[in-house]
Amino acid sequence: MKNPIAGGAGRAAPVEVALPHSRASQRRTLTGLLENERFLALVLLTPTVLILGMFIAYPFGMGVWFALSSISVGNPGHFVGLKNFVKAWNDSIFRIAFWNTSVYTFWATIFKLVLGMWLALNRHFRGKRIVRASMLLPFIVPTVLSTFAWRWMFDPTFSVLNWTLYKTGFIVTKLPFLSNGDWALWCAIVVNTWRGMPFFAITLLAGLQTINTDLHEAASLDGANGWKRFWYVTWPLLKPVTVVVVVFSIIQTFSDFQLIYVLTGGGPANSTHLLATYAYQIGVAAGLLGEGAAISLCMLPVLFVVVWIQLRYLRRLEGA
Amino acid sequence: MLIERRWKKWVFFYIPLTIFVLGTLFPFYWMLVTAIRPDAELYRSWRAVNNAPFWTVQPTLEHFRDLMEKTTFPRWLWNTFFIAVISTGISLACGLLAGYALARLKFPMAGALGTSIFVTYLVPPTLLFIPLADIIRDFQLGNTPWALILTYPTFLIPFSTWLLMGYFKTIPKELEECARIDGATRFGAMTRIIFPIAVPGILSAGIFAFTLSWNEFIYALIFLSSPERKTVPVGVVSELIRGDIYFWGQLMAGALLGSIPVALVYSFFVEYYVTGLTGSVKG
């Protein structure tokens, strides 16, 4: 106790074993090894790398092999090259699914961005806590469950929306919400926007709160109006957050499955399939694992480009 | 001028906002009135004279009773809860350790590893479900909760690692250095000094991870087959629709009950949830 910081652990008297620094004498033990930065990093990262390797990297490699083979349930299959991809390309439902996925992602992301930005920019108003709390509800409630509520609202026979429009005199016959392919896809876009918009609003709001209000004051003293203040002050500072949020949303919307699965099931007549639901239909429901894996791998190029933009953007921000 | 501004704010903001909030909440209201509506009222022609769909005249709990007695709904709730808690726990443990290593330790390949964990964050489950189903079958895990407990961390770990790494970077290094000078080991400084400070971050990551696993659908749909093993979203989809017939009363009752646990967790921890949500993309 006389000299707690001193080294010389090797010469330590037995009574000093209880002192913290005397652990240095046990360098060969695990505690000693954990002092080594590299060893500690190895220990800390092993569980994560194992789980991610086992359940992401390994299935990914396997998925590529599946996509290049004729495997199906109960049949190990053999290497067929790009046959599955060629087959998908010549399949009209696949083309529709790819087109739907792009339309769905594009419009849903635009709507979510515009609405989220509108809510985030008007952040100073009375009752905003209540609004924020209720606004987040669609994002909290499991998608499958809330989509059922929408499906019931769009029901061909008992739709409350049709009833309201009919009673108020806007329509004379029912609107074919989910029984017409084009209508159904737009309904899905509406539901997706409804569910995903809080994510945009809340994240953009968090981004706005980091912007120094002095900048706005300075700009208005210099005579900038509301639009100019947004364009020259807010937007450049908000852009990094916006890019990240949009990237996340694109990835999730592009690979969406549950919303369409519940709302339309890909119907009517396969007209509203997304890549994920079509891959499920071919790969799981029909058991053609190879073709299903090929269809879901077709999402990869788009996801890759988006992730690449994201990584480059992050690097640039870190470099700045 | 001031009056004009106030008037403008009402027309361009408060009124649209009110309509918007009501529209946002309407599906939940609709869930509720449908869940307590007897079948006789539920399936009435939409042009019937005395049809008033926005209100339930004779509320009933029969759909809730059917749900509890004729299906294994309580089991689904328990399964979902159990799987969400365990997989959140595993992911938090892994995310804490990995996040700390990436934020604080210097080792070869640190940058590459960080980037690849971030990239796995962006790999959607729908890209992997077909081969993953095969792996689950090979491991004999099909139709057990472990199939989900082990696969949910694939999207929870990257997210919690990313969030906690960001959190660790905000904690000053000096705290640890002081502890080390006072004789703490590297490991001890991490568990006794840094982790307790990171509790708000851990809570945010945990709550967000919990809601994510409660919401997960495609893995649960593919990996589970017997009715009593299912989670709420899958059970509702596969057991309350028979053939072409939708049992709307029970469906809405199930949707309502299945949403309550997450809504409760959320209402108690709004702030942490929001931090988790915004932190999940900031890093």
Distance between the terminal alpha carbons of chain B, to the nearest Å? 44 Å
CATH architecture of the domain at 91-283 and 299-319 in chain A: Orthogonal Bundle
CATH topology of the domain at 91-283 and 299-319 in chain A: MetI-like fold
Mean pLDDT across the residues of chain B is 88
- Would you identify the CATH H-level superfamily of the largest domain in chain B? MetI-like
SS elements, strand count of chain A: 0
**Most extensive chain interface and residues per partner:** A-B, 100 and 98 residues
- Assign the structural class of chain B, choosing from mainly alpha, mainly beta, alpha/beta, alpha+beta, or little secondary structure: mainly alpha
**Biggest β-sheet of chain B, characterized?**
2 strands, antiparallel
Description:
The complex is a heterodimer of chains A (320) and B (283). With 320 residues, chain A is mainly α. Helix content of chain A is 68%, strand content 0%. Chain A is built from 15 helices and no strands. In chain A, helix 9 crosses helix 11. The longest helix of chain A has 31 residues. Chain A is flat, with a radius of gyration of 28 Å. Chain B is an all-alpha fold and 283 residues long. Chain B has 2 domains: 59 residues, no CATH class; 219 residues, MetI-like fold (Orthogonal Bundle), CATH 1.10.3720. Helices cover 75% and strands 1% of the residues of chain B. Chain B has 15 helices and 2 strands. The longest helix of chain B is centred in the first third of the chain and has 34 residues. Chain B is globular and about 80 Å long. The two termini of chain B are 44 Å apart. The mean pLDDT of chain B is 88. The chains are: A mainly alpha (320), B mainly alpha (283).
